[in-house]
Write a structure and sequence with these properties.
The chain is of the alpha/beta class and 239 residues long. It folds into 2 domains: 124 residues, Rossmann fold; 106 residues, no CATH class. It is built from 8 helices and 11 strands. Helix 1 runs parallel beside helix 5. The chain is globular and about 55 Å long.
Length: 239
Amino acid sequence: MKVGFIQSGAIGDILIALPAAKWYADRGYEVFWPINQSFVPFFQKAAPYVHFLPVPPDAPSYDYLLGLPQRALVEHGVKDIFILYIYLGSNGQKFEFGQPPRMPDSLKFDEYKYAITGVPFAEKWNLHLERDTDAEARVLEAISAHIPYTIVHESPAGNRRNIESQLPPPEATRVLRVQTITDSPFDWLAAFERAQVIACEDSLYANLVEQRNIESKKYLFLRSACRETPVFKNGWLFR
C-alpha cells in the first residue's frame, strides 16, 4: 500500500503534517513525499518512515508546488495522493483539489491538512523525530547551554518587530538567536528543551516547540491572519 503527500515546502508546513505521514506509516503504508530538494537530507534523517523525493526549488511555481510532485508520485506507483495546500491560485484562478467545498473555508490550514488526509487532528502533537544526539550536543556546546538563556527566533517571513525588545527585562537576559550550527534545523531541539524562555514568531521553530510539547515559558509573536496561523495549545503567551 502506498500513499503520497503533496506539499513541497516550507519546512514548517511539512513539519505540521509530518505526524499524519507517520500515522499512515504505522498502519503499513509506504509514504512518499516530494519536497524541496534542499530539505531532503535533514528530513530523511529525522523521519525515515517517509520516502522523501527531491523537487528542484528553481522550478516554475506551479511545477514546484504541484506538477513535479504529482509526476514523481505517479512514477513511484502512488495512486492515493493527498494535496495538503488549503489553497493554490494563479492569475485569479483558484485550483480545486476535489475536497469538500466547505473544508478550506471552515478550517485553519493545519486542521485542513489532517482533515484532508483523514488523520485525527490530535496526531499533530505526536511528532516523532529521529534525533542526532551528537549534533544536538554541538549546538548545546556552541551556545554554552549550562548558562541560563532565552531563545529568540524571528521568522525570515515575519514582521521584523525586534522580539527581544518586547520581552520583560528579566526574561531577556542572555538572549540567544537561532543560527546555523549544524546541517539540520532539528538539531536545536535540545536547546529549546533547556531554554528558560522561548520567544518565536510563528515559524518552523514555533511549530517544532509546539508539536514536541516543550514546557518552557513561551511567547508567540503572531504574523498572519487566523486561517494561516496554526493551532497553538501548549501554554503560549500571545503577542
